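Long-time lurker, first post. I've been practising inverse folding by hand and with some scripts of my own, and I keep getting stuck on stretches where the structure tokens seem ambiguous. Below is the full token string for one chain I'm working on. Before anyone asks, I'm not after the true native sequence, just a reasonable design that respects the backbone. If someone could post their per-position residues I'd love to compare against what I wrote down in my notebook.
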């Protein structure tokens, strides 16, 4: 599964730069598409096959059983500590909205969940640690903020205690750490997880975008990597990792900067996993840094950046 996800995630970035590759070798090759349509080989990629297999397992489990209604499902959800999984909700939606939620839609939704949530948060976490380790002064300043918060009011910083006695930083506590917020936001700015243009279709009547009349049906889009490097918004040093910019800006400028951030998209199609991803990042980074000491080095074999992790002495 992880190997499949790597391939699935790597191909779009290559195709995004060289779209002709898709027609020559990959999904849109006309010969390959003809063979798929006529059943000469399975057109599912590994992620879709995984989602299809889980759906088949669920159908087998439900044989001879009546599916609960939405009201019954919510009642069950209240009793279960682990809640109701997405596949159960998708299959329930087939009963409530059969005209829309077909077997194909259940598979498509399940596949999207596996794809969308698999590596974007990991990319953002990697970016934060990368920039921290490439900028020792920032790392030292962040650690000072965390250590000061722990020394001043440890009860409010930590939500609970792990078996080894280390505390886990709570979401509420992480929101009281301004430099942590600046460190994470600046990493979001310089290294947004999605490097592709987020496409939208212009409505049939057309639209005026940035003073230009765009015909209906045209595909338009924005790239976060471009938006996040606008010097008129973020300053002349847009290519520099400097968390202080988020603390030095006046309220008006700060509002403009935050409104320009596009790492999760924007508008009605903002990433639905934004809140859970943000929660994970803001809790994991301070907890990890309070538990481990990290350092930076270059691996000799491929010259890729690696992170050495050494546990702090008690």
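-- Answer (accepted) --
I ran through it position by position. Result:
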């Amino acid at each position: 599964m992880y190997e499949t996800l790597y391939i699935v995630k790597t191909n779009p970035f290559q195709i995004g730069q060289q779209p002709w590759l898709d027609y020559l070798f990959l999904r849109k090759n006309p010969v390959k598409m003809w063979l798929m349509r006529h059943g000469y080989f399975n057109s599912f990629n590994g992620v879709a096959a995984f989602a299809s297999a889980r759906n088949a397992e669920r159908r087998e489990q439900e044989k001879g059983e009546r599916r609960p209604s939405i009201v019954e499902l919510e009642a069950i959800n209240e009793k279960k500590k682990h809640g109701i999984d997405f596949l159960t909700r998708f299959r329930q939606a087939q009963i409530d909205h059969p005209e829309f939620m077909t077997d194909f839609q259940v598979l498509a939704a399940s596949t999207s969940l596996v794809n969308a949530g698999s590596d974007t948060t990991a990319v953002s976490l990697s970016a934060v640690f990368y920039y921290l380790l490439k900028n020792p002064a920032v790392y030292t300043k962040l650690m000072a903020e965390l250590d000061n918060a722990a020394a001043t009011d440890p009860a409010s910083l930590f939500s609970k205690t792990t078996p080894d006695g280390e505390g886990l930083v709570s979401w509420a506590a992480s929101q009281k750490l301004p430099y942590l917020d600046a460190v994470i936001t600046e990493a979001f700015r310089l290294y947004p997880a999605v490097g592709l243009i987020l496409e939208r279709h212009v409505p049939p009547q057309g639209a005026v975008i940035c003073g230009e009349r765009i015909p209906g049906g045209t595909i338009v889009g924005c790239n976060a990597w471009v938006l996040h490097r606008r010097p008129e918004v973020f300053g002349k040093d847009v290519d520099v990792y400097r968390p202080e910019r988020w603390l030095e800006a006046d309220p008006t400028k700060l509002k403009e900067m935050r409104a320009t951030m596009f790492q999760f998209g924007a508008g009605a199609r903002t990433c639905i996993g934004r809140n859970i991803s943000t929660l994970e990042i803001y809790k994991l980074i301070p907890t990890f840094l309070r538990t481990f000491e990290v350092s930076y080095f270059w691996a000799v074999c491929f010259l890729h950046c690696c992170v050495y992790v050494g546990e702090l002495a008690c």
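A couple of notes from the structure itself: The first helix runs from residue 2 to 17. The chain has 17 helices and eight strands. Happy to go over any region you disagree with.
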